[in-house]
Input
Amino acid sequence: MNKISVIVLTRNSEKHLEKCINSILMQKYPDFEVIIIDSNSTDNTLSILNKYNSIKKQLEMVCYSKDISVGKARQIGVDNAKGEIIAFVDSDIELPHENWLKNMSEPLQDETVAGVQTLAKCKDSDPPILKKIHARFEYQDRIIDINNYQPIGTSHILLKKDILHDFRKK
Output
């Protein structure tokens, strides 16, 4: 199995960050790292990250004392990633179960698949229709292949790292 680098961007994420990190760290996938890029948080986000950083070896923090864009933060995460697969996970979500990384990475074993995306775990406050949608999908059936890039959301997505680097060169 390929190593996965889970990249989480934060900025004043104290409300949701612990649930997000816990849902990532409980994954049964055998080889993954967590890279958290913080953009000048002014709440308790850094305290939360420091607590986890001291007890979990697979968690790496990159903190900035100035605001950085989402795109720049993602690029910093990719540049620091040691995995062959990149998983972007938003800091305000929880992964739905302990096999999420395993299930999501399975389609990427096919050489023609460049990435997969998923819907987030629903929150109690979500409308009933959204809860119904979330309950039906592990990953969307729209799979990006190497020759047919499609516009996609990035709140929960796994991509092959080499594809990202190839795309940057173009």
User: Anything to note?
Assistant: The longest strand covers residues 32-39. Confidence is low (pLDDT under 50) at residues 133-137, 139-153. Helices lie at 17-25, 45-55, 70-80, 100-105, 128-136, 161-169.
